[in-house]
Each structure stands twice: as structure tokens, then as C-alpha cells.
């Protein structure tokens, strides 16, 4: 049923992204009766997002810097389409404060927090200071941005080794290097700086103490600028090269008191910011000591948001659109209940047998599972040519169960009922992963997956 939108709300939405998240946003907007515009590159004119949207605006050539990262092209598409709002999805310009400000300068709505909030939390050093001021514990690290190696060496004396070198303006695992001593810091600092400059257009770095065998746990929040709530936490410790592969909600290792303490700290920081929209606060959890440390906030929707949706029943993208359209949050914390467990497996166009080498191609046979408790977020269709220019994510297979055991059982069945031919993918890898006892026992940390993958390679697994 189409919802009647108010005069304050979004009248037409430009989706400034591609792939599965563009499809996800378009479907959420349609459920609210909002017309959509797909802003896409020339390589994506035949994409599912372009097919589903009410209108298409071509931004430019395939290269991201000439299309999805081209602010002027996006503003031109906004004006040409007559849209009054922009949803940036994740990646690309989603956490770019200047883009958000440029959208708002046209009189249109940026679906996300204010440019000032994006700027404050995008600067990782400023984010740490903001968290500390709100009484949220942070990992010991450098007090501000670092631009020169001499500054980094001096800061490292106070932080202590081993430490992580991280991009101040970034996320998604880019620009992060491990240094176990001063000589490694001298070697890795310029490399991290070059990677940060390339990925984010900003070479500023900061240092953070490395916590071995930590878990990566994050809290989903929603705010309307005045009030905020949490949608509980997600466990995101299974990572390869700091890119998440398998996520779940809730974390299988937290007790109720730990969960309450962690989530309350996320709400406290969100309300201190006057946060608007959907956001995620990321923490390291030292299971040995039971301590949590805030590391960063992502001021956008996350790839793994579906697991939070399935355990709470709240559509986060629709909530983003309602809040951006001027509606109050309309949720109290007591309204949000944790229901069961959810798991998400990222299906990428990568060949695990060739060290995850990208594997674009043409989708031939495609079958997704139809069982109860299974959801697939994807932009694929038979005959679709997966372009080689962008992120390799093809689909997200998400399952929900009454508890973690049922969710794991459903995940195994769902994976067996998936068929995707025409390119190599990580489907088979997830089937192997679901057979591992340590996964079922939730006995893992952020280094576990890479150790498992290394052992798998040594054993000659395909």
C-alpha cells in the first residue's frame, strides 16, 4: 500500500549510488510512495537500479571519478531531474561533508546527518575527542591528525607499540597499516598516507594502539537531531584485510549487562552530536578484559544493516527517508525489542582460489533461495554484465532465526540453494565457513578469518 507523504517530505529522490544499495534505496522509497531517480554511470545504464527507478540520469563515463564521485555531475543530475533529495547510500560520497553541504546549498535534502556532523565524525581524531567528551571510552591513540613521519614517531612514544596507522578521513579498512616498532612505522606511514590520499583525497593519519585478538562490535543508531535510539549491536569480527565478510546480530558473546552498557554509550554519543538519520558506532571489544573501546562512527547506512533490521523489524532505509523528510523519530527505546538472531554473508565477484582476485563477468544461471527466514539483497539478474570498475559485492544473503543455532542451520540450507554461474564468487567459501566448528561456537576474533584462510591455502583447498 502506498503511503501518502506530507508536504514536508521528500517529493522525488535522487539515488547517488549503484549496485545492491541503490536497489535497496529505490525499493524503500517506492514503499513510501516516493518517485526515484537513478544517477548512474554509462557502465550502469542497464543495471537493475536503472531498470527499477522512475527516471535515469547518466552522470558520465564508467570511472568513478567521472561519475559517482563527480560532485558537479551529481548536482547537475539533481537539477535536471527536479528531485528535492539525495540519498548517498554507502561508499562513494556518502561521508563527504562537502558533497552534503553542496546538496543542501541547492535547497535539496541530503539524506543523512548534517555536513558538520559528517565532518566531525569523519575526522577520526575529532571523533575520538567527541567520544571522550561524551564519556565513551576510546582506544589509546594520537591526540590529533598526523601529516609528517616525525610527528608520528613522537606520538608513537606515548601510544606504545604495536599500533595501527589509520586514515583520519576514511573507513572501510583502507589506509590501515600495522606497525610493531619504530622502523616499521617509518616504513608503513608513507604507504598508508598514499593509500589514504588516493581513497579519500586526504592524507591525514592518526595512530591507535593495536589490541590483539579483539572483537569488532558495532551499534546501529537512529536519531532525529533531538533524540536517538539504538537497534542493538552487530558482531563483525570475521574480516579479510579489514573488509567484513560475515556479520551477525546480536553479538553471540555479550551478556545483557554488557549489551546494555555498550548500546547506551552509543546513544549517549549520538545525542551529544544531535545526530540525524542512521549511523553506526564501531567498537573494539577485548574479550579477555571485558573492555569496550570506541574506534569510529560511520555517518551513513552500512552494508550490514539488514541483520539489524531482521532482529528489530525496523526498516532503516525507510526510517532514513522519513527523518530526512522532517518526521520525528517516533520510536522510544522501549519500543525496540531484540527478536532472535540474524546472519549476513557477503557474496563477492572474487575468486578465493586465486587470492580473491576480482572476477567480473556475465551472469548466466541465477537462483536465490526462497525459504522462510531468508532475504537476498542483490542487483543481479540473468544476462547482467558485472562491470570491472567498482566494488565486487554481488549480493548479501541474510537469514533470520529464533536463535543463533536456527539461523546457522538456515544459512547452510540457503547457501546450498544458491546458484550463480558466469563468474567466480565467494559462495563456496561461505559453505566451507559454515561447516567450521569454531564459527558455531562463536570462538573467533578479528584475526581468525585470515588465519583460517591461510591454513586453507596451505591445505590446497579450492
TrEMBL record:
It is an enzyme of class 6 (ligase). Its EC number is 6.3.4.14. Residues 9-454 form the Biotin carboxylation domain. It catalyses: N(6)-biotinyl-L-lysyl-[protein] + hydrogencarbonate + ATP = N(6)-carboxybiotinyl-L-lysyl-[protein] + ADP + phosphate + H(+). Pathway: Lipid metabolism; malonyl-CoA biosynthesis; malonyl-CoA from acetyl-CoA: step 1/1. Residues 128-325 form the ATP-grasp domain. Signal peptide: none annotated. Keywords: ATP-binding, Biotin, Ligase, Nucleotide-binding. It comes from the Bacteria. GO terms for molecular function: ATP binding; biotin carboxylase activity; metal ion binding. This protein is a component of the acetyl coenzyme A carboxylase complex; first, biotin carboxylase catalyzes the carboxylation of the carrier protein and then the transcarboxylase transfers the carboxyl group to form malonyl-CoA. Acetyl-CoA carboxylase is a heterohexamer of biotin carboxyl carrier protein, biotin carboxylase and the two subunits of carboxyl transferase in a 2:2 complex. NCBIfam families: PRK08591.1, PRK12833.1. PANTHER family: BIOTIN CARBOXYLASE, CHLOROPLASTIC, PYRUVATE CARBOXYLASE SUBUNIT A. This is Biotin carboxylase.
